[in-house]
Amino acid sequence: MINDEVIYETWSVCPVCLKRITARRVKKDDGIFLIKTCPEHGQFESIIWRGYADLNNWIGASAAAFEKEPPCPDECGLCNDHLRKTCCVLLNVTDRCNLQCRFCLADQDNNSADPPLEEILLSLPKIVEKGKSLVQLSGGEPTMRDDLPHIVRAIKEAGAGYVQLNSNGIRLGEDKEYVKELAQAGLSFVFMQFDGTNDTINLSLRGKGLLKIKQQAIDNCAEYNIGVTLVPTLVRSVNTENIGELVRYAISQSPKVRGIHFQPVSYFGRIPEKPSGQDRITLDELIHEIECQTTGLVKSEDLLPSCCDHPLCGFHGDFVVDNDKLFALLNQENKGNNCCDSSAADKNREFVAKRWLRPVKNEQQEQCCCGDIHNMEYFLNKVSAHGFTITSMMFQDAGNIDFSRLRRCSLHVYDNGKHIPFCAYYLTAWRG
Amino acid sequence: MEVEKKKLVCCKCQKELEMMKTDFTYLGHSFFTELPRCPGCGQVYIPEELVRSRISEVEMQLEDK
User: Which residues form the domain of A168?
Assistant: First the structure.
């Protein structure tokens, strides 16, 4: 249209054939779009910003232009053009799962054999950087493996700083002995799929009511001092009206629950259908909904853009839960702190780990009970036991992948000797 | 063994410092704690060990990644 304004030139792929093509961020009356044209399959556009906040202000000065055609994603694993080291490395330990979800990035396969334990153990020197690595165990559903505690122990013994389990929580709720074994093996924290505060949502997205078992999983993890972060996958008209309730529920579960991590649905792996423009939940829209639906409990200015990854890839807010209210630790004065250097991934890792890990039990005593969060001693006791994060990660799919974002990715999947940026690893073409 | 508490005297007013509620701010947040302060000029003494431990911990908690 005549008023459309190109605000950034970047690179992407054709969602049908995955050929690398140029793309533009274009400002229109109803939002900012990523627009690209494949010579064979035509034009595609995907909304990336709805206009609840100023995009330039959110991105800041980080939008460096491409000087040449990038090699993404063909040479992913990692190439010299990649701008970030590994913050978190994801290790898939199975393709099997005990759910059959409408959306599944991994598109689970229950007939597939798990990678043998010996193979995993042999790969650890390539995965673990001593004293640093945060290794995420993922799948499929990792708890399908009985030898998962053995894998956790081996990763810790190899020197990893932290081991995170990405799980739907079913076995963690059903099998307390298994949770105990994971804790004894050194599991640091769990990222637990948690899509809604009612089972209508679980039935729609996961095919069964799961609320009771997930509560049990939270309680079992708490018994063995494993921090849990709740991870809702947001799907328009399924649980986008439940965002505020999810935040309140997560807060009510503090200190057992250490935070909530929103993932607006991405269209890779198994998806019911290709997204329409209305289906996309943009970052600014999510922040707006969090503020509106929590009626001011969380303010949009408390949530800051990713600075390790690209600002369009997520946000983070850091809080202390104090009598069911949130005391925000980050504010606009933190924005733009210089973390975009070579150690960004290290800083990011330590930040998330210190929040998602529960302190050892003898450090959880709240010695000062004055109840005033501005009292230094009370604050320090609270922040350790009742720290709480609200974070989000906006994964990219074939429709909206933007290589200026991809080259700043610090979440890498380990596969066959390579560290591959998450969204490049799971990139799948939309057929038809 | 009980450590003998040292008397702190203000070098300007020569008055003995008293423990008083003291506010400090960092990155837009304000906190308070009890610190030795001169009842005359209001100057505050912050012990180095407190700076290295609790105050530095507060700063780290408020700093972004």
Answer: 88-393
- SS3 of residue A3 by DSSP: coil
Give residue A336's identity as a one-letter amino acid code. G
In sequence order, what DSSP letters do the residues of A352-377 get, joined into one string? HHHHHSPPPGGG---------TTBHH
Q: Is residue A25 one of the residues assigned to a domain?
A: no
**Is B49 in CB contact (< 8 Å) with chain A?**
no
- A62 lies in a domain? no
Indicate which CATH number applies to the domain containing A188.
3.20.20.70
A193 lies in a domain?
Answer: yes
Cα–Cα nearest to A402, from A57, A12, A137, A22: A12
User: What ipTM goes with this model?
Assistant: 0.88
DSSP bridge pairs for A257: A228
Q: Does B44 touch chain A (CB under 8 A)?
A: no
Domain count, chain A: 1
Q: Does B64 touch chain A (CB under 8 A)?
A: yes
Cα separation values, A41 from A249, A275, A277, B3, B58, Å: 45, 17, 18, 81, 55
pLDDT in tens, A193-215: 999 999 999 999 999 999 999 99
Task: Note the pTM of the prediction, 2 decimals.
Answer: 0.91
Instruction: Report the range of poorest mean pLDDT among A98-107, A229-238, A240-249, A290-299.
Output: A98-107
Residue A336 has pLDDT above 60, yes or no: no
Answer positive or negative: Cα dihedral of A304, A364, A193, A145: positive
The tens digit of pLDDT for each residue in A82-124 reads 988 888 999 999 999 999 888 887 776 778 899 999 999 999 9
Quick check: A376 and B55 CB within 8 A?
yes
Minimum-distance CB partner of A351 among B27, B54, B65: B65
Q: Which stretch of DSSP H or E encloses residue A217?
A: helix A211-223
